Amino acid sequence: xxxxxxxxxxxxxxxxxxxxxxxxYGKLFNYGRKFTELxxxxxxxxxxxxxxxxxxxARFSSITTPDSYLFYTFRNTLFRKLKKELKSRxxxxxxxxxxxxxxxxxxxxxxxxxxxxxxxEAAIHSLPARQREAIYxxxxxxxxxEQIATIMGISVKASYKTVSKGIxxxxxxxxxxxxxxxxxxxxx
Amino acid sequence: xxxxxxxxFESLPDxxxxxxxxxxxxxxxxxxxxxxxxxxxxxxxKQDMVFxxxxxxxxxxxxxxxxxxxxxxxxxxxxxxxxxxxxxxxENKVSFLxxxxxxWLKRAAVIIGVLFLLQVGYKYWxxxxxxxxxxxxxxxxxxxxxxxSKVVLDAHTKLRYxxxxxxxxxxxxxxxxxxxxxxxxxxxxxxxxxAMDRFLVHTSGLDIEVLGTRFDVQSxxxxxxxxxxxxxxxxxxxxxxRAPIEMHPGDLIEYQKDIDHLTRSxxxxxxxxxxxxxxxxxxxxxxATITDRIKRFYGLxxxxxxxxxxxxxxxxxxxxxxxxxxIFVLSTSLNIHIEQSGxxxxxxxxxx
Lengths: 188, 352
What we know:
Chain A is an all-alpha fold. Chain A is built from nine helices and one strand, in the order ααααβααααα. In chain A, about 35% of the residues are buried. Chain B has helices spanning about 10-15, 20-25, 30-40, 45-60, 70-80, 90-95, 100-105, 110-130, 270-275, 285-300, 325-335, and strands at about 60, 130-135, 140-145, 150-155, 160, 170-180, 200, 205-210, 215-220, 225-230, 235, 245, 250-255, 260-265, 280-285, 300-305, 315-320, 335-340, 345-350. In chain B, strand 9 and strand 10 (about 225-230) form a beta hairpin.
């Protein structure tokens, strides 16, 4: 995305706003959808996020990482709405105070026998939700650790730890003989 | 990137958590390849670790949930910033309010006129306000519409309708997912049908029109299915080349919008609507059909370790209130092994 767009947005250019909207809408929806299947809620949070963006458009002349700002604002807005919604639905099953990155959206993309796949999927499910989220932001969105720290509201050191802890947790759940690994890597 | 000797990786977490290692796996460059080749030569005992770390990093993926371009453009268009609702900047509002009293007196008559129009406009805007209801997985919800008609919404379903229903307009709702409708019959004289007597359900590819009746609608992506329990229904198609169809009780119509394909059959309507009472009426239903329902209602994935089990059939009534009970009933009735693992159900022959 053209970096000039942020400057134009800062000056109150509605067309620049529309371009920023189009660039981030899909990404943020994809991200938000990992925390809930309530799509209208995600859409609501998106609209509100962009209202906040517009209300604060002047800031964008000086924000160094506008992407993080967008993700951060969206995450907070979505969590606020989601918490409220979950409370009013009174769902007994799995009520946590903090919305969680759903395990079912994290996949292993590889050919392997069912037994191994089940083991890996079980490992993914046993990962703490924050680690799943950190891995998503790092490996799917390609964000830097500093950005992840900002978005999730943790220190940079903690963001490094969270991603690697997550990966190791998965690795501890399975032990592949080197030869099999080698075969799988070749087939890549 | 600094000299190799500085990097000591004692364990797998050190390696996987290292940004340089991640870069090498995700976005290799000649420089990175050289660096890590050297490092592996210097640490031959760590080769296994490197293989495992690479495998994990390379095979992680995430399910994609991307909105369509149409959805995005519609959202942008509807966004307050793109609407012409006047200036949103705060500065102007502040100076506006600080003007002296004589300024307002001079404009009194105009202001009164404007306020009146605003009130009328506000009432209109309110009536145009959309109510949207959305259910989560595992949730069934009953909704009463402005005319007191009732809709039971299945899990993972969206319903939209205007907050207020006018006298000179048909009653309308928009459905995405699965819903059972009990529509109040308002028409007094079949020779004179008023606008409000008509009730319309908008779904993917077709509109369902009734005067008053009970029917079930399933609409997702390009496929819409309608089952009529009682009364009379007319289906009007988005594709204008297709003539409207009249439905009678016991009719099941399935319409695939993208290929404009329609099938019609006679069914036991009660079996199709039993979901709303959180049960499934099974008339020799196959395990494949039953698990389809479980998939849609609970949002679970099904893993078949033995695909011959798909055609096993069952008769009777299955209560769907609780997944543990469902698993128990299915596994004992059919003598199969069902296990829940996270958000998946694994189905297999019985364990010896």
